[in-house]
Specification:
It is built from 5 helices and 12 strands. With 211 residues, it is α+β, with helices and mostly antiparallel strands.
Length: 211
């Protein structure tokens, strides 16, 4: 069985010491990501998101991450830079000028691997708080019905294993509790036609190859 690993981390933009919205500053949307070598780039709310082509080795995974990150940095306008942090709080001035699509929180629901139930939609405790995930995608099949009970159960079982191998160890490196108030509960996952998406991790691991 061939196993492929992908990812779609979210990052924030910072300019002159202030977090700014990525909306309208970089190309690509969820519906139409902007393709680049090694993956694609898009706006996700007020964050910049990139995804990588599925990889079958660490070398390919790491290479795809670095390739797409470099392209994203080239596309950022002016003197803005990427900030790889799990959560930020935008000022009221920034929030007040965002369109509705940039302010929207959440998209398709994800599930709890221990109950099989849908996780509750996030509600920020501070209006301008936004968080960034570092979701991991695992592919081992194709064209699966995401509602098929057998496939869904396989995804649940894998999410539990990933909690053990990724989720729990991440707590020693990712100390941001603000994101965990909204996203990243244990066993958060989505079934996919190609396998599953593990949604517990923040973007902390993008900062270093050893992560």
């Amino acid at each position: 069985m061939e196993i492929l690993i992908g990812a779609d981390p979210e990052l924030f933009l910072q300019q002159d010491g202030q977090y700014i919205s990525a909306y309208n500053l970089i190309p690509g949307t969820k519906e139409a990501p902007h393709p680049v070598d090694g993956g694609a780039i898009q706006v996700d709310g007020m964050a910049a998101e990139f995804n990588i082509d599925p990889a079958d080795s660490f070398e390919q995974f790491d290479g795809n991450i670095n390739t797409v990150l470099a392209k994203l940095r080239e596309m950022i306008p002016g003197n803005a830079n990427l900030s790889i942090v799990p959560s930020v709080t935008f000022t009221d001035e920034v929030m007040d000028v965002q369109p509705d699509e940039a302010l929207a929180l959440g998209c398709d629901p994800d599930f709890n691997a221990y109950t099989g139930q849908i996780n509750e939609a996030p509600v920020p405790s501070v209006l301008g708080r936004r968080t960034a995930g570092g979701h991991v995608h695992v592919g081992w099949t194709k064209d699966q019905d995401v509602e098929d009970p057998v496939h869904f159960d396989s995804c649940m079982q894998l999410a539990r294993q990933l909690d053990y191998f990724l989720g729990l160890p991440s707590l020693f490196a990712d100390h941001d509790d603000e994101r965990r108030e909204m996203y990243g509960k244990a066993g958060a996952f989505r079934a996919k036609p190609y396998g599953m998406e593990y949604r517990t991790l923040s973007n902390f691991w993008v900062t270093a190859p050893e992560y």
